Amino acid sequence: MARLAVNVDHVATIRQARGINEPDPVLAAGIAELAGAEGIICHLREDRRHINDRDLSLLRQTVKTKLNMEMAAVEEMVRIARDIRPELVTLVPERREELTTEGGLDVNSNPELYKKVVGELKERGIRVSFFIDPDPLQIETAEKVGGDIVEIHTGHYSEARTESEAEKRFLRIVQSVEIADELDLGISAGHGLSYVNVKRFEALPQIEEYSIGHSIVARAVYVGFEQAVREMVDLVECF
Ligand code: PXP
Hints:
By secondary structure, this protein is an alpha/beta fold. The protein is about 45% helix and about 15% strand. The chain contains nine helices and eight strands.
């Protein structure tokens, strides 16, 4: 049975749109856990555009399942992770100008750096996952530099415009999962997964965990909007 880990970045994005203190990703994380999520994910970006240091610190204090901190492999983040000690760090690429994480991490671009970062995190008891494209070379290098888990980037698959494109892209994921499994790596998957496109993954029991954020927040707006409006109507109707 696969696990769901919920990414709360987008709750923080809504908060940041107003620059006030709600909605709070920390409260959302607690609700996600009550609903059965087995992990909470947040991405502390260099520009702190959504999750900030206060959120990370409170999540560390309150998450009861497993905290997965997504971060770039840079000195500042390694220092923060070593201090906060999440159960898991997921190394992701980061560009200031991107709307969201675009491609997977190119582990082959600098294996020495990633090996060093993995060592520094493991010294503090933190497991390390690499967010990579479904590419056999990336998976092999992730294993060589000491990664415990590979998170297969499903964004390309999620963006497929036709059924045949989706099938072709999914097959690349299938091959990558098989390679990761042979290497005895933990396997997770995420990015762009929705209530519709996630169904195909039933065919891949090797994937232990799914990291999903945006589609859950989007659905929460739809399934929660009616009640929220009713509650405000009830309030103003008493005036
Ligand atoms: N995994 C990683 C590494 C990500 O960067 C993200 C997006 O923050 C996700 C999973 C979740 O993607 P989405 O919000 O599209 O579900």
